[in-house]
Design a protein that fits this description.
With about 750 residues, this protein is of the alpha/beta class. It contains 17 helices and 39 strands. The chain folds into five domains: about 110 residues, no CATH class; about 170 residues, Rossmann fold (3-Layer(aba) Sandwich); about 100 residues, Immunoglobulin-like (Sandwich), CATH 2.60.40; about 250 residues, 3-Layer(aba) Sandwich (Rossmann fold), CATH 3.40.50.880; about 90 residues, Macroglobulin (MG2) domain (Immunoglobulin-like, Sandwich), CATH 2.60.40.
């Protein structure tokens, strides 16, 4: 081998193994080939030399042929000489260090944090772990809801992760050592895995433990002895509620080692107390379920707080209070509809309103007026008196929308109530007036508070209502207005408007006010251009005018598709009038309602012009504030699409408000940043899980006191070798292999000629 090494110019000190590899097959195929070929070849070589008289010459020629045949056979089998270097691998030991937040909790009796107990234990056993590294590969990991390999040091070991999930940890451990020899695991933890039920261990943990080859030794950091705490373990509250409707919620209060005492649980919205409950804490009982019921007074996202008193002797104080939010919405949209007379238009609109589950409709039809020629006393013209005082004095503010449909107010409503309607709209109400011969000038509304709030002015004309067929012409300047959007795609939306059936009848003598939005017109050679669909505002409220009583044709004359667009048209009007978010010129939103700590918050706003086209390059001021402080004030400009995005990283948990003021418009949105303190809600040590993990895996369980001696732990050390380096050299495709064959054959031929053999 030394000579071969010289031939191939290699240093044998680099290698500790060598072998010959045959390219044509495995060892058994080679042996079979030799057994089948060699004996006949030898017989042939020997018998062909019968005429050689000298035995010595005969043997010499015989071996020449054998050497030639051997080299030829070697070439055919293509042998390679392989040198290898192998290394012995160390078996693995995994050290798992729990770095979830519950490790920061102090424990009895010295009020040392659980993580400090782990650090003391590791420091006490530094020499043992160093010796362990001589024979094993010791891998250290931080574990919580994830597993992360680390070069352990006291500085980088902090209790900061949100929670612990042993199922995930063991699953990742199994994958990490799938093809490695894991001889054992050290787990340092308080066992506070919130995914585990008290007194139980999940099947997922049992399954993963069975796949880990070595024992899992568990070391419990801390104990539950004299663990004093008063906590709100959980709050069960609805995400949504309705204004003026009772909301129910429940919570579980946990008490440990606080003796017998009475505590008060308080529910607040801001500084306003909504309710309180006295809980009688008793030493022999740990958990108390408490129910609350309250009634929201305002619409929007509302923040509520449940709080318990804090006692100095508690180990944890952060779990005595819990904040949550409820999105308070309208229960239903309340609409008052007054119809001057029965008609197809009033019938179909009433069906749309009555069949909408969002709408609570109060509808009145005037079947006959006081001016009708009937032989009956005035007192009998109606089954019940028209409740004008109740509708327009006592309960007007309870409605979200008031509709006058072909309605003449005199003699059913006193003119003083028209002032109430004006004030109602001024303060944020909505008013819709639908045409017909009894509307507008025909209803004697000229120079009344109703004309004041509508987006049109009335002109005296001989013909107040024209019975003409027409197709409404959409104002292209407002083609993107929410009222006109029967389809989202603009081209498709225009096609829909072009395909709708014609209308019949229009109110004349109407002129759009200065700031009104004329959405559609009636154009006639004689009458000129008459606005038939106009949107406007008065004070804080919204008003809409529909100057025809024949929109029902879209439903009646075009069943199916037309009916769908008929409903969508009126729903669009209602949504815009009650200021649904998707209809606002300024739209502000966060990409999520809730964020976790260290998660970036994304705020997006979009601005539309008055005609609802994107408002590009418009400067606005964004303010982000917590419940008590202003955090960020930023000037932002919209892009070409009228949009802008702002991102920031909150430095604290809690509830936040983002508000934007731009183009004389204001909007705000609320979001929350959740503090990752779930383990503080149930901070007890889970010794059951730690004991079971050790028991099932064949490991040991210990409670840490900082001076635990681990030197008694021993692990197997089988030798495992792997090839780390190799080199191969061909023994057949070189000059000396082919030269040897030719040389032996030539010498055989020459000697045979010398002795007189052919």
């Amino acid at each position: 081998m030394i000579e071969l090494a010289k031939i191939f110019r290699i240093d044998l000190s680099e290698f500790d193994q060598w072998q010959i590899n045959w390219a044509q097959g495995d060892q058994w195929s080679i042996l079979i080939s030799v057994a089948l070929i060699v004996p006949p070849a030898l017989w042939f070589f020997w018998t062909s030399l019968r005429r050689v008289g000298s035995t010595s010459k005969k043997l010499f020629l015989f071996f020449l042929r054998i050497f030639a045949f051997a080299f030829l056979f070697m070439i055919l089998m293509r042998p390679e000489l392989e040198f290898r270097k192998s290394n012995a691998l160390k078996n693995h030991i995994a050290v798992l260090l729990d770095n979830s937040k519950s490790l920061s909790v102090k424990t009895f009796p010295e009020k040392t944090s659980r993580i400090d107990l782990v650090k003391k234990t590791l420091k006490f056993n530094e020499e043992y772990f160093q010796k362990l590294r001589n024979d094993f590969q010791v891998d250290t990991y931080f574990v919580s809801d994830e597993i992360k390999k680390t070069n352990y040091s006291i500085k980088n070991y902090q209790a900061h992760r949100s929670y612990t999930d042993f199922s995930r940890v063991l699953d990742a451990l199994d994958k990490e050592y799938e093809n490695k020899s894991l001889q054992g695991v050290f787990l340092f933890s308080d066992g506070a895995d919130l995914t585990q039920e008290p007194g139980k261990i999940s099947p997922s943990i049992l399954k993963r433990l069975s796949r880990i080859s070595g024992p899992v030794h568990t070391f419990q950091a801390g104990s539950n002895m004299q663990f004093k705490d008063l906590a709100l373990e959980a709050v069960s509250n609805p995400d949504f509620g309705f204004i003026q409707q009772p909301v129910s919620l429940s919570t579980t209060v946990y008490s440990s080692a606080l003796g017998n005492r009475n505590v008060t649980l308080v529910l607040k919205e801001g500084d306003r107390i909504l309710g309180s409950k006295i809980i009688k804490i008793r030493e022999n009982k740990k958990r108390y379920k408490v129910n609350f019921e309250f009634t929201p007074r305002k619409i929007g996202k509302r923040i509520y707080t449940l709080s318990l008193p804090r006692f100095a002797e508690e180990f944890i104080l952060t779990n005595n209070q819990k904040e949550f939010e409820i999105d308070v919405a309208r229960d239903r949209i309340r609409i008052l509809q007054l119809n001057g007379r029965p008609s197809w238009d009033s019938r179909y609109l009433r069906e749309v309103l009555a069949n909408n589950p969002r709408i609570d409709l109060l509808s009145f039809f005037i079947l006959r007026s006081l001016g009708d020629d009937v032989e009956a006393p005035v007192s009998e013209l109606s089954l019940i008196p028209f409740p004008s005082n109740l509708l327009f004095d006592d309960y007007l503010s309870s409605f979200d929308l008031v509709i006058f449909q072909n309605f003449k107010y005199d003699p059913f409503i006193d003119k003083k109530y028209l002032i109430n309607i004006r004030n109602y709209v001024k303060n944020g109400g909505s008013f819709l007036m639908i045409g017909g011969e009894l509307s507008f000038q025909g209803g004697s509304y000229s120079r009344t508070p109703i004309e004041e709030i509508l987006p049109v002015t009335f002109q005296e004309t001989a013909e107040l209502f024209a019975d003409k067929e027409f197709f409404p012409k959409i104002n292209q300047d407002f083609s993107n207005h929410p009222v006109l959007r029967l389809e989202k795609d603009l081209n498709l939306n225009q096609n829909v408007w072009n395909s709708l059936p014609p209308l019949q009848g229009v109110n004349l003598g109407l002129t759009a006010s200065k700031n009104a939005h004329v959405l559609a017109k009636f154009e006639d050679e004689i009458a000129g251009s008459i606005p038939i669909l106009v949107a406007g505002g008065f004070g804080k409220g919204q008003t809409v005018l529909v100057a025809t009583d024949s929109v029902w044709n879209w439903n009646f004359r075009n069943e199916g598709i037309g009916a769908r667009y008929y409903q969508r048209f009126w729903n669009n009007i209602i949504d815009w009038m009650i200021a649904e978010p998707q209809t606002q010129r300024l739209q502000l939103e966060s990409d999520k309602d809730q964020y976790r700590e260290e998660e970036p918050v994304l705020i997006k706003f979009k601005l539309y012009k008055k005609n609802y086209q994107p408002a590009a390059n418009t400067l606005g001021k964004l303010i982000i504030s917590s419940r008590f402080d202003e955090i960020i004030k930023k000037d932002l400009k919209t892009d070409d699409q009228g949009e802008q995005v702002f991102s920031f990283l909150p430095k604290q948990a809690g509830f936040f408000t983002a508000s934007i003021e731009i183009d004389n418009l204001k909007e705000k949105v609320m979001f929350s940043v959740l503090k990752d303190d779930a383990e503080f809600q149930k901070p007890l040590v889970n010794e059951f899980v730690l004991k079971k993990m050790a028991e099932i895996s064949g490991g040991q369980y210990q409670v840490l006191d900082g001076s635990n001696d681990l030197s008694s732990f021993r692990f197997n050390k089988p030798e495992i070798k792997v090839n780390s380096y190799n080199r191969s050299f061909s023994l057949w495709d070189n000059w000396w292999a082919y030269g040897s064959v030719v040389g032996f054959l030539f010498l055989d031929w020459w000697l045979r000629r010398k002795v007189g053999l052919s």
